Amino acid sequence: MTTTTTTEPSAGHNAAKHGFQAEVRELLRLMIHSLYSHREIFLRELISNASDANDKLRFVALAEPGLLAGDADLRIWVDYDKSAGTLTVRDNGIGMTRDEAIAHLGTIARSGTADFFKRLTGDQQKDSALIGQFGVGFYSAFIVADEVEVFSRKAGEPPTAGVRWASRADGEFTVEDVAREERGTAVVLHLKEEAKEFADPWRLRSLVTRYSDHIGFPVLMKKEGEASLDWEPVNQAKALWTRPRTEVGDEEYKEFYQHVAHDFAEPLAWSHNRVEGKREYTSLLYVPSRAPFDLWQRDAARGLKLYVRRVFIMDDAEQFLPLYLRFVRGVVDSSDLPLNVSRELLQRDSEVEAMRSALTRRVLDMLAKLAKDDADKYATFWKEFGSVVKEGIAEDAANRDRILPLLRFASTHDESNEPKTALADYVARMKDGQSKIYYVIAETVDAARGSPYIERLRERGVEVLLMADRVDEWVMGQVREFEGKSFKDAARGDLELGALAGVEEAEKDKALKESKGLLKRVKDALGDRVSEVRISTRLTDSPACLVLAEHDLGAQMRRILAASGQAPPQGKPVLELNVGHALVQRLDATAAGPDFDELALLLHDQARLAESGSVANPGDFVRRLNRLLAQLMR
After folding, report:
1. Total Cβ atoms within 10 A of residue 177
2. What kind of architecture, by CATH, is found in domain 503-632?
3. Which residues have a Cβ under 8 Å from the Cβ of 79 and sit 6 or more positions away?
4. Fewest C-beta atoms under 10 Å: which of 76, 414, 421, 516?
């Protein structure tokens, strides 16, 4: 049996040789050696690309119907030649010019490429997962092929404007001009000896049915057992989201996710819904199981695939979900929007705003259901996307009450550093008389767990939420309460123990009367480094701590501002002393003079280390510490 591309010329003119982008060469090497166990995904990727090319032509043809002249039925063909060992995937979609072939097939334009290569480990199994997370696309053809040829002609261009692109994945590719009668693109794979199974019709049909049944265009193969050139569809050729939910199985939903997200991992959850009435649209939304590499690039391409009355409009319509849900993948198909809708119109359209609100609630409801029904899957979700979801507390006030129950934290209730505690769990475990939800923010969870600010709370058995994400201080500055319980940063202001304080206030009053002289002497020694020196109700084991005012920037926000080149405003913290600690008692017993000042400054620097992880002058701190150690060793 011959392929449909036997008419493709094997030679042309104006030939030129090019080198692959360095990242492409590395990606090809990794895929060829790491994805052997997943090699059948190449067919899914090539058919998906062909479907995208057809979608794009159908959209462009809305304004230029002449582009479809003589060939208006958009399809995809899969053909093979056993004797030649070739497999061909062809479409009659938008096609490529010579320059587009060089740009699209020789480079990786996707953001996050550099980070992708930084995270490679050299372990084939782990790197295989990373490649899947990145998305393999066209280059997956080299998993099964020694050589790949691409023949293409852009829609609207004359037959003489065809292009042939070819490579053996050896670091280079050639491009030449060829005459091509057909519009669209044909990808010809010269199969490796161990991959000749993909020139078998039954194997190909099973793969098309498995991976591409949901494609909205007919995927055609030649009828078996006949000498004619008759073709027949081997997929349903009906967009999956247009089918009733009762007719779609879980495996079909998972396969469609892999198509729309270019990810061979399974999604954690999905929601398929049709809205009818004042506005009509269908949505199919997915929560991935792994974060993309560009998750923290807030200006990276994101959003849903947008269709209008089943006509593809754009790949990344970001207007339908807020930025903190940028990890969600899927499709939205509207019956109300105009076919000529643009990104600018989407930003101003009231229908889009109403759909955005509804789709946002649907995603949050889907996450709430996942948290309730499958704790393990939700733990996976939170590990991958929790830091991003937290952004919604600050950015989406309308849905704050929906987002708060989704948050998970590490806690002193559990010795594990994994974020397992929901706010509802915390409230259910609160002590009698406790009115605050206490938390502490540090550079790491371990640092938060060992923070001096929570010593008294731990002694009283009061649970504390441990936070270390870079967004935590910003987020917690936007939230006030949960189920009537207000949040309290244990490192700011008064600890506000309320009914939990017991006899502590009386003890503090007594200690204050006895220590007024010490407090004044320490304040004089420290000068304007602190705004006040007072007795602590926080500390049980540490001698001192620096306490921020309620609205001062914390260490985390100061580091973020400094990293962005901004000078953070410097507040003056309060120094709290644990007057029962041996060091503070030694300080009180030290006469005024250089020794007293040195010890006071050392306690201040220790407190600053605990608060921010650094001191203003490390050399002075080390000198003071060494001097004290030398005295103790005499």
Report:
1. 17
2. Up-down Bundle (1.20)
3. 1, 3, 4, 5, 87, 88, 90, 221, 222
4. 516
Position 1 confidence tier, pLDDT thresholds 50, 70, 90: very low
**Tokens matching residue 446:** 């371990």
Annotated domain spans of the chain? 13-238, 242-399, 408-499, 503-632
Dihedral of CA 552/553/554/555: which sign?
negative
Residues in Cβ contact with 321 at an 8 Å cutoff, skipping those fewer than 6 apart:
303, 304, 328, 356, 359, 360, 363
CA distance 532 to 575: 6
Helix (H) or strand (E) holding 20: none
Please state, in angstroms and rounded to a whole number, the distance separating the CA atoms of residues 201 and 618: 72
Strand partners, 80: 87
pLDDT in tens, 92-144: 999 999 999 998 887 665 545 555 556 656 665 555 555 555 555 788 888 89
Q: Please classify residue 352 by burial: count the beta carbons closer than 10 Å to its beta carbon, then call 0-12 exposed, 13-18 middle and 19+ buried.
A: buried
Residue 479 or residue 311, greater confidence: 479
User: Cα(613)–Cα(633) distance, rounded to whole angstroms?
Assistant: 27
CATH no. of 13-238? 3.30.565.10
The answer regarding whether domain 408-499 maps to CATH 3.40.30.10 reads no
Assign 3-class secondary structure to 204-240: HHHHHHHHCCCCCCCEEEECCCCCCCCEEECCCCCCH
pLDDT digits (tens, 9 = 90+) for 431-477: 988 999 999 999 899 999 999 999 999 998 999 999 999 889 888 98
